[in-house]
Description:
Blueprint: E1 2-4, E2 19-21, E3 25-28, H1 35-42, H2 45-48, H3 60-69, E4 76-83, E5 94-101, E6 109-114, H4 123-138, E7 143-149, H5 153-161, E8 165-174, E9 179-189, H6 190-198
Antiparallel strand pairs: 1-2, 2-3, 3-4, 4-5, 5-6, 7-9, 8-9
Helix pairs in contact: 1-3
Amino acid sequence: MTVLDRNPPDTLLERSIPVLETERLTLRAPRLEDAKTIALLANDRRIAENTLRVPHPYGLADAQSFLTTANASDDETVFLITMRKSAAPPAANVIGACGIARLDGETPEIGYWLGVPFWGKGYATEAARALIDHAFGDLGYDVLHGGARVSNPASRRVLEKCGFQWTGVGLYRIRAIKSSAPVDRFRLDRRLWASLKSWGQTALA
């Protein structure tokens, strides 16, 4: 993962958001022209039911609302996950989103989602790894939290592959289902992250 020079911002909200690159992906700040692609990808109940805040159905107005508030606060950093090698226009390269949030003054927590056509290809782990490196290496965090619904083993496996350790189960409200559901909670500290880096690993097998 590399942090690229910051490009001139399309909006004021992009000004402090770096661009992160991995082997296959680029993580960048959301832009207003991404609204249609985000709405198309996120309008799937399988995504909404596995996130806390994504509504269902998810339309263009929801995407526009997301874009106008993304990165407006220092408590949350939002990236869109895009494909590096593509001849398509930049907005069409979007495959999902991820971010780091300090909600209600709590320990920073990572989150991520991918459009269903991109599941099962290792993109979530690759994006999460870049996000973690940014959180510890650039932002100076000492601890990160993460979570996955107990009914979502794929997301849980992403966290485990990135070195997160299970800490228990909590009950969280899921906006899309208008109810609460059990969520596996995970924790990763700087010491373990540094150990993985020193071993030449960016994720566990």
